[in-house]
């Protein structure tokens, strides 16, 4: 089973290729001018570096967000186009799931945070139960004070939002707030690939119309002039 995974929820664009139980490629590129210009090139380069073609891929996986509205639309549209052309299944994985999955096993709660702008973060709480990662809260889009009201035990924060609001979280939560090393602060296409493998085994791929971005908040649309 070969899975091609795309991560476009932030400005760190990622492509990973998973073959059975090995990551063959995990490429990341910081993009300042939008994902559409480089995503296909990064995919083609990644495949060529491991001696594969797009026709060798058995499944596509894509990060669903929350995150950049434009990035999510581009990633999902690209994945759906490839799946339609190649006749392979598509698996969508929430970005926060991918962030939490990448952290090593711990007895503490795990809370990935993504910057939602406007003084808010996207968040969810996770715990390891008998080795399996389980989400223990709804998807949240909240300010830091409201987020703190959901924290009742020692919690490890990770993700870009944890970097931005680190001091505020420490001030409010004290010893309950712990922070992952910087290496776990960025979304990873490799984590999306691993989770997609598990999801595909348990549920199979969904119809393309069933896989939609997880926005949590409506895109901000500017009114047309005139």
Write the layout of secondary structure elements.
Blueprint lengths: L1 E6 L4 E8 L2 E9 L8 H11 L9 E5 L5 H18 L3 E4 L1 H7 L7 E9 L2 E4 L2 E4 L2 E4 L4 E4 H5 L6 E4 L1 H5 L1 H8 L3 E3 L9 H15 L23
Parallel strand pairs: 1-4, 4-5, 6-11, 11-12
Antiparallel strand pairs: 1-2, 2-3, 6-7, 7-10, 8-9
Helix pairs in contact: 3-7
Specify the CATH homologous superfamily of the largest domain: ATPase, nucleotide binding domain
In round numbers, the mean pLDDT is 91
Q: What's the β-strand tally?
A: 12
Low-confidence stretches: 221-226
Explain what you see:
By secondary structure, the chain is of the alpha/beta class. The protein has 2 domains: 2-95 and 188-210, Nucleotidyltransferase, domain 5 (2-Layer Sandwich); 103-184, ATPase, nucleotide binding domain (Nucleotidyltransferase, domain 5, 2-Layer Sandwich). Helix content is 31%, strand content 28%. The protein contains 7 helices and 12 strands. The protein has helices spanning 39-49, 69-86, 95-101, 144-148, 160-164, 166-173, 189-203; strands at 2-7, 12-19, 22-30, 59-63, 90-93, 109-117, 120-123, 126-129, 132-135, 140-143, 155-158, 177-179. The protein has a 5-stranded mixed β-sheet with strand order 3-2-1-4-5, with helices on both faces. α3 crosses α7 (189-203).
